[in-house]
Design brief:
Layout (H helix, E strand, L loop, with lengths): L7 H17 L11 H21 L6 H19 L3 H21 L10 H18 L6 H11 L1 H16 L8 H4 L6 H7 L4 H24 L6 H19 L4
Helix pairs in contact: 1-2, 2-5, 2-7, 3-4, 3-5, 3-10, 4-5, 6-10
Length: 249
């Protein structure tokens, strides 16, 4: 894709084939007890969403690779304490690869290597797949919340720009939501507020650490997550979205 360009439909098709391969061997979302073709569709929607989200945050040096490393480390920690040691090892390997890459991708003073679509989509697919394979809690909706928290920052950014662009009436064609690019992501809006590129990364990394810690807390103490606390969390996220939207980008 970085050499000659690949259409969004082809990328989605490849993601679907990868998801179907997982589904064929019994690796699919089972938080709600759904099986068969419905499980395949639901798993593809999740993995496609996470993959696209990491592709979307690959808009600044050190962003996608750093956030993927944090997601991998959080997944490792939760997998280890829940005795899913094989999953923990895979998560740690992915996180380690991202950290090794980040050494050359961090803007200090400038990045020398880059992920591109192939790298960011791969990381998103890998992390999306890990969250699908893992068994986080015995309660379906709580497991879904843990999975969301493990990839929270890229997912928030993707859904934020998706909704924001829709509210602004920027979509003219059916393909626009998946192929439209722009300088209106969370990182761009934080830069617009006056933060430096490294300060933006620290803010996003901090959010990644907090979301990972919350996911771990829920796994260790499932009683912490109730419909009330989940609702309050959703309100906080909505407030963050409104604050970023107010930047005017």
């Amino acid at each position: 894709d970085d050499i000659c360009g690949v259409r969004a439909k082809i990328k989605l098709g490849v993601l679907f084939l990868g998801t179907a391969w997982l589904w064929k061997y019994g690796l699919h979302l089972n938080a709600f007890g759904w099986g068969g073709g419905l499980a395949l569709i639901l798993t593809f929607l999740w993995i496609g969403l996470v993959s696209s989200a990491f592709n979307g945050v690959d808009n600044a040096d050190g962003e996608a690779s750093g956030l993927a490393a944090l997601s991998g480390l959080s997944t490792f920690a939760i997998s280890w304490v829940t005795w899913q040691h094989d999953l923990a090892v895979i998560s740690l390997v992915l996180a380690g690869a991202c950290l090794g890459f980040l050494v050359f991708n961090f803007p200090l003073p400038r990045a020398t290597i880059f992920l591109g679509d192939g790298g960011s989509l791969f990381l998103g697919f890998g992390l999306g797949g890990l969250t699908v394979i893992g068994h986080w809690t015995d309660v379906g909706w709580k497991s879904a919340v843990v999975a969301l928290l493990l990839v929270f920052v890229p997912l928030f950014d993707f859904l934020f720009i998706l909704i924001s662009r829709g509210l602004d009436g920027r979509y003219r064609h059916l393909e626009d939501p998946i192929k439209m690019c722009g300088r209106d992501h969370s990182s761009h809006r934080l830069r617009h507020l006056g933060l430096s590129s490294r300060q933006v990364l620290l803010v996003l990394y901090g959010a990644g650490v907090i979301s990972g810690a919350l996911a771990l807390a829920i796994v260790l103490q499932p009683a912490l997550l109730t419909p009330l606390t989940a609702g309050l969390g959703a309100l906080v996220i909505l407030a963050l979205g409104v604050a970023l939207k107010s930047t005017g980008l």
